[in-house]
Design goal:
This protein is mostly beta strands. The chain has 2 helices and 10 strands. Strand 1 and strand 2 form a beta hairpin.
Length: 111
């Protein structure tokens, strides 16, 4: 089943090829501040439309993307194009979808 989410102002849309089975609550310094809940996907299974602005972490490993209009963080992508994984902020999707998903905690501070 295709899932669709949007940033607050609607300028950016995200579409997932499949409904995730679980979502991750990471407590690293960035995720803690963003308040995001992530689902992980191959970039080939995610469609994103709209203008985005990126912020690379200090280690230049990930780029966190957000809408330039409303500021909502939409997803992160690996700086290395060989990495076949990205995180999608599930807080941009319907609460009804989130209610049916299990949430697991990841200790990103310790990683």
């Amino acid at each position: 089943m295709t899932c669709r989410g949007t940033c607050h102002c609607g300028a950016v849309t995200l579409e997932l090829a499949d409904t995730p089975h679980e979502i991750c609550d990471c407590n690293c310094s960035v995720c803690h501040r963003l308040g995001a809940l992530w689902s992980y996907h191959s970039p080939a299974n995610v469609r994103i439309e709209g203008e985005l602005v990126g912020y690379q972490t200090g280690e230049n490993v990930l780029t966190f993307w957000h809408c330039p209009q409303c500021g909502c963080t939409t997803h992160w992508s690996a700086v290395d194009p060989a990495k076949d994984r990205m995180g999608v902020n599930m807080r941009l999707f319907a609460p009804e979808l989130l209610a049916g998903l299990s949430v697991y905690s990841y200790d990103g501070r310790a990683a």
